[in-house]
Design brief:
Blueprint lengths: L2 H21 L18 E3 L14 E3 L1 H11 L1 H6 L1 H14 L5 E14 L7 E17 L3 E14 L5 E13 L6 H4 L1 H64 L7 H34 L11 E3 L13 H11 L1 H23 L3 E14 L2 H6 L7 E9 L5 H68 L5 H35 L3 H4 L2 E3 L2
Parallel strand pairs: 2-7
Antiparallel strand pairs: 1-10, 3-4, 4-5, 5-6, 6-8, 8-9
């Protein structure tokens, strides 16, 4: 191929690319649809927990410190927080539909053939076709394409001939595909899916915080149970020693020792179970906290907060119900699902319409013996124009009508599900409210029971020392006192956990713990 032909090919490519680049806008016309909402970040007022010991020492932590550590380090939460980012990529994929697309091709044809004259001379000829186009689809249902093409024909029989054409094609949907609600439906639904995933993260975070608090108080309860069983075991052993002394001086028969020994065995059994519960609860707590340590399972945990009755004032139950209906993540997700149904109805409704498109193609062609001259020749009066309308509509259009009916029924189902969910949420909150009140009254009852059991043991012990009671009755009184002491602590922990459950069910637990989460 001739050298100047190659130069013309590359020159035309460069010029066409520059024209295409100039056509590209600085921003997408669908830029207003690009969601700039940040991925939800879970954080609190006190990111640095001053009550947490160094990595090498024991883990000394408060309830708030435990919550903050888990929000920073919990692996399950780390997995959940990636979901909105993944969903956001789907938004970007749908937005890409309205991004400009540049294309082009270059083709070369060369032929060598003998003429049919007497001399039968070999003639070489060829064509070089270059084309660059930029196309873009707009939310208004408009498809625009700018095309710049150049054709160079050369032959040994005639001089080089170059034609350059600049054209614009516009296709506008008149019925199906013209509505903004139809063309933007997938982007809007992708955005709603991203928001729903954020509410999923919120719901998971609230459940995690509730689990951390409950496990923290379970661990405190297990520690307290060990203390109670240890003290009770010492009391039982002291009772056994007193019985031995009384048997030694002939004041009691040896059979009285059996009940005391049985009681000691029961105390040891309870202590073993309490220690096992403590270790298992510690593993669960460490799993939730995931402290920055290579060997977290061997780490000792010291709690700086102890279970005490909080000085909390309750709002009316209707206030808590109203808060739940406004704040609960599952209810907000259900509302977004209804909104997505509205978008789907609009999209499928447009699909019922016939397809009718208006197309217009305009172009100008320049002719010359070189590419540059053919470009200058575009100023001449020559032009080409095409216009028309295309129409398409399937008989009965059953598929589109079925999709629209499906969307309408799905939205109706989502609305019914929302009403059911609201009712369930109200039952949850009212039940949790009753539990808080019950737990508070139970604290007063267990305190009275403990006081009476303590007095009962004192009286039974005095009677035993004067020979008016038995070892078995004293052991029973000790056992009842032990149970009442454990029940007293359990009731306080239950009361604390009942508040956690109420706040979680009304969707306010994060805010009540000083944690901000961007919806």
């Amino acid at each position: 191929m001739r050298r100047h032909n190659k130069i013309q090919i590359f020159s035309s490519i460069i010029v066409l690319c520059l024209v295409s680049i100039l056509f590209l806008p600085a921003q997408s016309s669908a830029g207003t649809l690009n969601s700039k909402e940040p991925v939800p970040l879970v954080g609190g007022k006190d990111k640095a927990s001053p009550d947490i010991a160094s990595e090498k020492g024991p883990l000394k932590i408060s309830v708030q410190g435990a919550i903050m550590m888990a929000l920073d380090n919990n692996r399950s939460l780390r997995v959940e927080k990636l979901t909105p980012e993944i969903k956001k990529t789907l938004e970007d994929q749908e937005n890409a539909v309205f991004s400009p697309v540049i294309g082009g091709d270059v083709s070369v044809t060369q032929e060598k053939a003998k003429t049919q004259s007497r001399s039968a001379r070999e003639i070489e000829s060829g064509d070089t076709d270059t084309e660059v186009n930029v196309s873009r689809f707009y939310p208004t249902g408009t498809d625009v394409e700018v095309n710049l093409s150049s054709q160079l024909s050369w032959s040994d029989l005639y001089s080089d001939f170059n034609s350059t054409r600049l054209g614009v094609s516009v296709t506008q949907s008149l019925l199906r595909g013209r509505d903004l609600d139809y063309n933007l439906a997938k982007i809007r639904q992708a955005r709603l899916n991203t928001r729903m995933s954020r509410y999923e993260v919120r719901g998971f975070s609230e459940s995690l915080v509730a689990d951390i608090e409950n496990t923290y108080w379970d661990y405190a309860l297990a520690k307290r149970q060990i203390e109670i069983y240890t003290e009770s075991l010492r009391l039982a052993e002291r009772q056994k020693n007193e019985i031995n002394e009384m048997i030694k001086f002939g004041k009691l028969p040896e059979s009285e020792l059996v009940a005391a020994m049985a009681e000691i065995a029961m105390r040891r059994e309870g202590l073993i179970n309490a220690r096992s519960t403590l270790e298992k609860t510690k593993l669960k707590l460490l799993r939730l906290l995931n402290p920055p340590d290579k060997n977290i399972w061997g780490k000792n945990v010291t709690l700086t907060d102890q279970p005490v009755v909080p000085d909390a004032k309750m709002d009316t139950v209707d206030t808590h119900v109203a808060l739940a209906l406004a704040r609960r993540p599952d209810i907000n997700q259900a509302q977004l699902k209804i909104d997505s149904g509205d978008i789907e109805i609009a999209r499928t409704k447009n699909g019922i319409l016939p397809k009718m498109d208006l197309f217009i193609t305009l172009g100008k062609t320049g002719y010359s013996d070189s590419f540059g001259s053919s470009l200058r020749d575009l100023d001449e009066n020559s032009y080409d124009a095409y216009a028309g309308i295309t129409f398409e509509y399937p008989f009965s259009n059953k598929a589109a009508k079925a999709r629209h009916r499906n969307a309408a029924l799905t939205k109706e189902q989502s609305e019914a599900a929302m009403e059911n969910l609201k009712q369930l949420a109200e039952v949850d909150v009212r039940s949790a409210y009753i539990e808080v009140e019950r737990a508070k009254k139970q604290i007063e009852a267990t305190e009275a029971t403990y006081t009476l059991q303590k007095e009962k043991l004192r009286i039974e012990t005095e009677k035993f020392r004067f020979g008016k009671s038995t070892t078995l009755l004293v052991a029973q009184a000790q056992r009842d006192l032990l149970a009442s002491r454990i029940s007293q602590t359990q009731t306080i922990v239950t009361y604390l956990k009942s508040f956690v459950d109420l706040y979680r069910l009304e969707g306010s637990l994060l805010e009540r713990r000083g944690i901000s989460l961007i919806d």
